[in-house]
Amino acid sequence: MFEEVVQPDYGAVDYERVLGVLQGWLCVMCNYQGVRADVWVLKEFGVRDSWTKLFSIPYLDPLWFHYSVPLCIDVGGEVMLEYKSVLVIYNPKHGTFRYPKQMCTFKAWFHPLLMAKSNVLDNKHNEKQQWWVQTFSLCI
What we know:
The protein is an all-beta fold and 140 residues long.
C-alpha cells in the first residue's frame, strides 16, 4: 500500500529536492541554487508537523549547487556528504568544512559503507552484537 507523504514548507520557489534516509528517518535535502541546502527529516509518518529542519549547509562554491543527501551524522553532530565528486564533512555547530582522509586520490566509482554496531538479544536472551550496513554508490 502506498501513501502520499506531505512535504514540509520549504519557504521558497526556486529549489531542487533530493530524497534519502538519514539515521532511519525519511530525509529531504532541499538545494537552493547557489545559496544553501536545508536538511529536513520526517520523524513521524503522516504527521506534517513532524518535519524538522536539522540544519542548513552553505555552499562552498555558488556555481556548484548540489550536495548529496547526508550519508551519516556522527555522535558529535558532524555530517558527511558528497560535494563536487568528493566526500566532505560539515560541522553545523561551527559552520566549518573539512575533507576526510581518502584511500585513493583518483576519480573512480566507489561505494561508501555505513556500519552501525548495536547490542541485541538472541532467542535465549543473551546479548550479542549485530552490525547494520548500508551501501551507497557514488560516481566521482
